[in-house]
Amino acid sequence: MTSTTAPSSTRPGLLAELPTLADCIARPYDNFSVLRLILALAVVVSHAFSVSTGGHEPLYLSTGFSLGEYAVNGFFTISGFLVTMSFARRGWRDYIVARTLRIAPAFIVVTLAMAVFGSLITTLSFADYWRDPQVGRFIVATLTTFKSAGALPGVFADNPLRAPLGTVWTLKYEVLCYLGVLLFGVAIGLSRRGVALAIIAGFGIAIVLLDVLYPEAGKAVQTSLRLPFLFGIGAVFYLYRDEVRITSWIVLMLVAVTWLAQDTSFYKALNFATGAYGIIWLAVAPGLSSRAFDLKTDLSYGVYLLGWPVQQTLQAFSPQMPIEAMLPIAVVLSLLVAMVSWHVVEKPALGLKARILNHALRQDPRSAAI
């Protein structure tokens, strides 16, 4: 009897049998939109502690990073992946318009709306509030430098933290990463993916060396490496989508390696890389992604921007309310104001994008919402 089994030398390896990232994103749906919303809500949960006490939550004390920081890590990985895909599919002109209209309109409206809202809740008189030069400084600093620590006169004066828009600082890094993709795509070309991989490896090495040579470095220095590194990992995943394999086994392996390295200088870089792969796996892995999770309304940006002022307002008017009582209210209100932001500002801006580019908007929801 002749055997029909192929010789072992011709069998595909285990890795080759696993789905590639390209295979996964070729499907008509994914979990990117629902994951972004979950991450935005995680930021709200994390900020419940800082807004009410000015301190850190339990996860920060056990891992060195808060739930909000882990959520921002996920945001930047997803953004790096989808924004790089956006550039590859659109080209630089469409990319500039799309990025600008996704970030700027809601950011500008929220900043101005917060200044107006401040006049309604300030401890100053209405006239004294608007005469105070701090109002103008708040608007200018927020819109030009993404400053999140600025205060408004008489607003949230008795809160542990006074900042009305405490999350906008990450937009600075987001915009810089957008510019990085644009410059790389135009000057070097996305086809030169080995160069991109080398750049991201350099960021990873810098994170390790920082921990070795300057372990007492402040959060600002660490963040300036962490967020581009995570964004870049997402971008590299897209560029190497035909080679990257998607499987829970890689997730488990990375988690194990990171756990073993927790007392070494490699821990932070491994922690970030593991989280980056994990969030992409959650977004596209067969068996996890579902059409039901492919949301048509993207509230994540609105929740992220507006969750903080919602919590600050609740804290100002109910300072004695315990976190476990205030948090559900904050989540519901954040979703509601984010819904208003989406329908009044963000969705119309995305529609304007098609008219500016003089063609019909034919994007799938995941591209339109990034």
TrEMBL record:
Domain named Acyltransferase: residues: 32-340
UniProt KW Glycosyltransferase keyword: no
Keyword Signal: no
One Pfam family it belongs to: Acyl_transf_3
Keywords: Membrane, Transmembrane, Transmembrane helix
GO term, biological process aspect, one: polysaccharide biosynthetic process
Tree of life domain: Bacteria
An annotated GO cellular component: membrane
GO molecular function, one term: acyltransferase activity, transferring groups other than amino-acyl groups
The name this protein goes by in its record: Peptidoglycan/LPS O-acetylase OafA/YrhL
Species: Chelatococcus asaccharovorans
